Every structure is written in structure tokens, then in C-alpha cells.
Amino acid sequence: TQNKEFVCRGHDYERLEAFQQRMLNEFPHAIAMQHANQPDETIFQAEAQYLQIYAVTPIPENQEVLQRDGIPDNIKSFYKVNHIWRFRYDRPFHKGTKDKENEFKSLWVERTTLILVQSLPGISRWFEVEKREVVEMSPLENAIEVLENKNQQLRTLISQCQTRQMQNINPLTMCLNGVIDAAVNGGVARYQEAFFVKEYILNHPEDGEKITRLRELMLEQAQILEFGLAVHEKVVPQDMRPLHKKLVDQFFVMKSSLGI
């Protein structure tokens, strides 16, 4: 198995550190590599045994099931981690000069997709990687994806709260708090400074549609938050009222910074 790559499914609830330790116990002479970067030739040619272990994210094949409304969450959860051929991991990096005030401007992502010989889980808990594809995502594409994911997460939490699937509302409270807090502390403004300024628009004429998409996602997020706060208000316990009020006040600040 020299110079080969596998995706392995750990035990239920096994943390990455525990999995790494388990592998190092199986290969006691191996040297653990502490990064996810592609190893250089000297490592591939080395006499010594190296192990490189990092977490990857499953890419579900069945997007239709995941996006359709009315399908129970436990079924969606199953499709997110079963019958998976493709996995990916992201490596953020900065290109060009890094703006200390606004790191979003130069934050690229190198996305590696691993395609397996067979889907996981199978008879075995691990299968070999057949091929890997690497693409680079621009700072703008990265911003769009971050917002899409966050909007989806908010929607899911709000609907779980509405349908009383949530035993306590902490996950929704924390998510609302995180998004509104980040926005008020410059998150929204950083995106605006990075991508909505004349300089960026003139230098990237090909990004017109993506800039529009980002703007739409920001406005959509404001609508989701407004709805989320209304749902939150109905279910928030008495001792968390002050936090709820703070969120509502901050949300109005956020809306005005978006120019809504």
C-alpha cells in the first residue's frame, strides 16, 4: 500500500485524534505528518513509512432528496453520509497582498475532491481513492458558498424549531447570535468593501453575476433572520428574554448597514 490514499470511515462519534492514535498503534513505525498539504517527492521516495491523516467531508450523491421539502430530517441525515463516492477537503490560503483590515479580499480556497473506487460504507470501512481533482475557489466564490451554507443551516434550525423537533432551542439561539454578531461586528461590511466597491467591479467584469448572487444571499439572510427571530420570540424561555432583545436590536443595526 505504498503511496496510496484511502478514505476510511471511523467508529461512531470517534474524534479525529482518537482515530489518528488508533492508526499509529496499527503502524507503530510510521511517522505522522501534521498537515493536509500534498506531500513532496522526497516523502514519496523515502524509505521511511509516513502516515498522513486528515478529515474529509462527504459529498452526497442524492442532492434531490436533501433539497426536497417534507422529507424527514433523519432520512436526509442518512443520505448525507451513506452511498458516498466523493469526498472533499478545503485548504484556505492567501493570494497576493493580504489586507490586514479585510482578509476576505485575498482568501482563496484550494478544494480537493477525492473519488473512490467504490461507495462508502461498503463491506469494508475503507476504500482506495481512484482519482483526485483540485480546483481553486476565488474569494468571491468562497464568500458565496459560506453564505449559502449559513442560510441553509438557519433554515433547517428554524424549521426544526417550528415543527417542535428541537428539545431545546439553544442551537437556534447560538446560530442567530453568531450570524447577527458577526454581521454587526463588520462581517457584512467586509464583504461589501471587498466585492461591492467600484475597484473590484471594474477589475473583475466577469464576476457580475456572482456579485449579484452575493448581494441576493445577503438580503436573503436578512429575511431568514427576521423570520428566525419571530419564531425564536415565540419559544424563548423567560431567562433568555434579555439576549433575545439584544439580538433584535442588533438585527436592526445589521439591516441598516445593508441599506434595507
TrEMBL record:
One of its GO terms (cellular component) is plasma membrane. GO terms for biological process: cell chemotaxis; small GTPase-mediated signal transduction. Residues 137-164 form a coiled coil. Keywords: Coiled coil. Pfam families: DHR-2_Lobe_B, DHR-2_Lobe_C. GO terms for molecular function: guanyl-nucleotide exchange factor activity; small GTPase binding. PROSITE patterns: DOCKER. The keyword Coiled coil applies. It comes from the Eukaryota. Residues 1-260 form the DOCKER domain. Belongs to the DOCK family. This is DOCK4 protein. It comes from Cinclus mexicanus.
